[in-house]
Design goal:
The structure is a homodimer. The first copy, chain A, has 13 helices and 16 strands. Chain A is of the alpha/beta class. A five-stranded mixed beta sheet of chain A has the order 6-5-4-7-11, sandwiched between helices. A five-stranded mixed beta sheet of chain A has the order 14-13-12-15-16, sandwiched between helices. In chain A, strand 4 and strand 5 form a beta hairpin. In chain A, helix 1 packs across helix 3 and helix 6 packs across helix 13. Chain A is globular, with a radius of gyration of 24 Å. In chain A, about 50% of the residues are buried. At the A-B interface, helix 1, strand 13, helix 10 and helix 13 of A face helix 1, strand 13, helix 10 and helix 13 of B. Chain A binds a DNA duplex through helix 1, helix 3 and strand 3.
Chain lengths: ~425, ~425
DNA sequence: CCACTTGGTTCATGACGTGAAAGCAGGTCG
DNA sequence: CGACCTGCTTTCACGTCATGAACCAAGTGG
């Protein structure tokens, strides 16, 4: 229902994209297998693959004997055709990583952020510095970097400027994309950190092979990344998936967003610790930072602690059930440091709580798993942004080439 | 990221689809305007439109003078090229309606359903009987019916058999699609009633011109139809949008689905009346059927009544806010008979309650409106199912045509 | 050495969108 | 009344693309 024409070029691009995506995702494949699984004719597979080999994007990778026939030549994406850089702008540090096309990390740089509300200019400088640092560190030609993906912990407008609104950073309307583009020629992609982590989880983690999923992230805050039919659901202005601030206890606890009864106020680490402190007024709360305190609470054996954890599981189950009812995913992937900590000990109980609150049918159609990639996957997720573009376009778009005016002969007559 | 090839045929189909969709949605247009808005070359527009005119799918509709030049010829979809039949399987009756391609209703048939849990066979018979009744009534050749869309009030699996699970009808696994196909040659489409109503509202009602919307339906039950980027969001197994059974008051009132604290238990008409009865134990509840009672409650001036309504608005606002936070729509369209009744008097209060519970940014990006089409639009919505297919395919797919073996001469040598 | 099997490539063909030129239908001006 | 202008539409040669069929390549078993 798109209001856009299709031309012969689009067709070729689409077919290159299909082939490239399959080669990249499903490892080395022969031309024959490619033809089978894409329904393209062998002639076209040969033609398109040949083109991509000539460009250096795809390469042959050994051959496999096939009983009694010519051995098949396997094809793979050339890891060194280009490189991807991903960055994670967290609350305490900026992390930049360089990957080859197999998503193997080759270099890493990290910059601490001192201020609670860092200056955007400074963060952009860190990012740009990190970009050149990792290329140098890995000995990669900066021109070979296909794209620079940046993950931030707020919402990102889908405009050219990539305007960022990040409450935790104190940013409201920072055109991070524009700022970065001013400092580098590498194509820049900015997106929300939960979404990039979700994308990484979908490609390399617990979401492999699933087309509809929700990645539910529980840390100090609570968010979700919804994947619909293989690609991220963004909504009208890219701020879809604000799961943490859905109301789950009407008129309940006050959340740091100002509203009452948000899910985050009950299952976010801060909310859980708060609830424990409240229930346990006699004893002092566990010390240390939030993450340590949360871990201690989880391992504690006191009645109050256990009850708070039980309640948390109940609330979380209800929250997950809401996602199941609304999005009807094939899989829910639970992550975030607090979500993982909770899930490692209590996944069966979480499943049970979800079952209690969700409709029978949608629940039966879904499975609830834990994230497989650590929280460091945010930077890798950011690097999937340029990778996704590469796959979608079937390689680097042919430059207009400015063909040298082929001296068009005058028309007939 | 689709794993499917694209061929030259797909290109032409896609372009026909773009043109046809534009002509149909945006009224009579000249070839020139079509070229402009689709970016297709005038040559292609002429070619494609010419083909569709030859098939009878498009027709010229007068011309408009253009100052000082050749007048433009306007094009429209030929209303009589084919007909669409839509049906609504409600709890009390089966309603079947016939439309031409301008979605003008030409005939109607209705069959009451006696039993609370009607026999699927009997419903299918009503539907098939209705299909032939409306064609006969309108004097339309049954072969000219392009499709038969059927809306039911449960979830519908997206399989060839269109298996229906409808709690309110007591159906669990009824292959309605297969049953209907056995009785007619007309292409059958079965879908959920909320989704078809939502589609109608998107094309002809409060959702016109919007690409991301949520149609929130509040009647005796509560449901939602999510439209993402112009087409309905279904999830993995088509049961997405079960808004009514999301938890909004953890551990709250028991819902008829068995869980505690579902939104439906608070804002569904039954739940509202229940709450009123409970709060007003001294006085008897309003009499009559649910719809009458609900209307009376809305108009009542007693303190208890007003308080119940106020609370309902609060709960509804929180529910809508959850939709806004999770889906980030451009527009929320409130409908369903109870939703409309409530909205007609209290829309500003509902907006305010939503603002109170939603995050500032997503709320600012959305507008909350009332449905414009009555609840009878379900049947029209069902008729949009075959229409959507027609538009998507750019007309009736060319039959394989079995070209008469062009006596291929042997190859070279 | 020859059938046989399986994998990959070449080539003529037909489908399709495109830009440029031509055609066409009105009006205006001399 | 005819030359001319304007703006909409069609025609045509061309280049791009996927395709099926024939062809070539590289092994195995007799």
């Amino acid at each position: 229902m798109d209001a856009r024409r299709t031309t012969v070029r689009d067709m070729r691009r689409a077919n290159r994209s299909v082939l490239l995506t399959r080669i990249w995702l499903d490892g080395p494949l022969s031309r024959h297998e490619l033809g089978q699984s894409t329904a393209l004719s062998l002639a076209s597979v040969s033609n398109l693959v040949g083109e991509m080999i000539a460009e250096g994007l795809v390469e042959e990778a050994g051959s496999v004997e096939s009983d009694g026939g010519r051995p098949r030549v396997l094809l793979r994406v050339a890891p060194g055709y280009g490189y991807l850089v991903g960055a994670d702008v967290g609350e305490t540090r900026v992390q930049v990583e360089l990957f080859d096309l197999t998503m193997t990390a080759l270099a890493k740089a990290e910059y601490p952020i001192a201020a609670a509300e860092p200056d955007p200019r400074q963060v952009a400088d860190h990012l740009l510095h990190g970009l050149s640092a990792v290329t140098e560190q890995a000995g990669v030609d900066p021109a070979a970097v296909l794209g620079f993906g940046v993950a931030v912990s707020g919402t990102v407008e889908r405009t050219a400027d990539a305007v960022v609104h990040a409450q935790t950073l104190g940013w409201d309307g920072v055109p991070l994309g524009a700022m970065l583009r001013a400092g580098t020629d590498v194509p820049v992609h900015v997106d929300n950190g939960a979404k990039t982590l979700g994308q990484a989880e979908m490609w390399f983690g617990a979401g492999r092979g699933v087309r509809h999923a929700v990645v539910a992230l529980v840390g100090s805050g609570v968010g979700a990344c919804v994947v619909a039919d293989g690609s991220g659901y963004r909504g009208a202005h890219s701020s879809a998936g604000e799961w943490g601030h859905t109301t789950i206890v009407y008129g309940g606890r006050r959340c740091r967003c100002g509203n009452l009864g948000c899910l985050e106020a009950y299952v976010g680490a801060e909310g859980v610790l708060d609830r424990f402190r409240q229930a346990n007024r006699g004893h002092p709360a566990a010390g240390g930072d939030e993450e340590t305190a949360f871990g201690e609470l989880l391992r504690a054996t006191g009645r109050t602690a256990e009850q708070v954890i039980d309640e948390t599981i109940g609330y979380l189950g209800a929250g997950v059930a809401n996602l199941v009812n609304l999005f009807n995913p094939e899989r829910v992937v639970l992550g975030g440091w607090a979500g993982l900590a909770l899930g490692e000990r209590h996944l069966p109980a979480i499943r049970e709580a979800t079952a209690r609150h969700a409709l029978r049918q949608p629940y039966a159609q879904t499975s609830i798993e834990l994230c497989r990639l650590g929280p460091d996957a945010v930077a890798m997720g950011a690097a999937t942004l340029p990778m996704a573009r590469l796959l979608r376009d079937g390689g680097v778009p042919r430059q207009p080439a400015a063909r040298p005016a082929p001296a068009r002969r005058p028309r007939h007559r």
